[in-house]
Design a protein that fits this description.
The complex is a heterodimer. By secondary structure, chain A is of the alpha/beta class. Chain A has three helices and eight strands. Chain A has a domain of 84 residues: 2-Layer Sandwich (Nucleotidyltransferase, domain 5), CATH 3.30.420. In chain A, the strands form two sheets. A five-stranded mixed β-sheet of chain A has the order 5-4-3-6-7, covered by helices on one side. The longest helix of chain A is centred in the first third of the chain and has 15 residues. Chain B is an alpha/beta fold. The longest helix of chain B has 15 residues. The chains are: A alpha/beta, B alpha/beta. Strand 7 of chain A pairs antiparallel with strand 1 of chain B.
Chain lengths: 131, 142
């Protein structure tokens, strides 16, 4: 009796849907990423042992190493910080405002921003590193 | 005899789309830095406390005086500038006051600072006050 040769199954990997999967992954990454609005602003973070992980900012206020003020990544005059923050916050006073100030700046440079945020009555989080 | 012109078929090559998109994914994965922001929420009063309030409660309001080289802590005594403390000492003194258990107006900690104080120093003191449950009230220069 002749021995029957076992038929080998052809292993074919379907690749036609790979493109769709890849595009879905890209869309996921783009939507899930939180792009930093102040990424190109040079400000050295201060350090303190009393900091913890914080929620993402809804409004970003940064004072860079040259003492320039930025609200949501846009440079503003130091006298207009309060109105710029109020505009960014709108009616939602419970929005989280992150304040990042270059660690080497002196009182006269950062105090206007602190006072402006105090006047706005918003929730302020001072951004810094844990040390 | 007239030859019928053959129309060139317009076709977009889609075979390499998956390669391109995977390259994009690899780019995103490699360039993304997953960073969790760190900091501390601080309570800043909407305005400086009224002058008369500070004066009347001066005797018992904790006062922190930040200078370029030292930190002074006192309970609002006018006659003394307060005692010199290190940051951990300041924290333990504020902890002893049990500020979180008090109403907001009694949680006020007055912060005075010299013009040459840098943000890094101010940040350390303010986060320590906030950690202890205090509300920072900044005294403006006259």
């Amino acid at each position: 009796m002749p021995i029957r040769k076992k038929k080998r199954m052809d292993l074919v990997l379907p690749t036609s849907s790979m493109g769709d999967i890849a595009f879905l992954l890209i869309i996921f990454f783009i939507l899930a990423s939180n792009f930093m609005k102040s990424a190109n602003i040079e400000a050295e973070k201060p350090a303190s042992p009393d900091v913890d992980a914080i929620d993402d900012a809804q409004v970003d206020v940064v004072i860079d190493k040259n003492g320039k003020f930025y609200v949501q990544g846009v440079e503003v005059d130091k006298n207009l910080v309060e109105s710029a923050v109020a505009q960014a916050v709108g009616d939602h006073r419970d929005k989280l405002v992150h304040l990042l100030v270059d660690k080497n700046l002196r009182k006269e440079s950062f105090m206007p921003a602190v006072e402006a945020l105090g006047s706005c009555g918003v929730k302020v989080v001072l951004v810094g590193e844990k040390k | 005899m007239r030859k019928s012109r053959q129309r060139a078929k317009a076709e977009i090559e889609t075979g390499s789309f998956s390669d391109i998109s995977f390259l994009l994914i690899i780019f995103f994965v490699l360039t993304t830095t997953f960073e969790k922001a760190t900091g501390r929420a601080v309570d800043i009063p909407s305005a400086s406390p009224p002058e008369n309030q500070v004066q009347s409660e001066d005797k018992k309001t904790p006062t922190v005086n930040i200078m370029a080289d030292k930190i002074l802590f006192g309970m609002g005594e006018q006659e003394s500038a307060g005692e010199q403390v290190s940051l951990p000492e300041l924290k333990s003194k504020l902890m002893k006051l049990n500020l979180p258990a008090k109403p907001e107006k009694d949680r006020m900690v007055i912060v005075e600072m010299a013009a040459e104080v840098e943000w890094d120093r101010y940040f350390k003191v303010v986060t320590a006050i906030s950690q202890a449950g205090g509300v920072v009230a900044i005294v403006e220069d006259a």
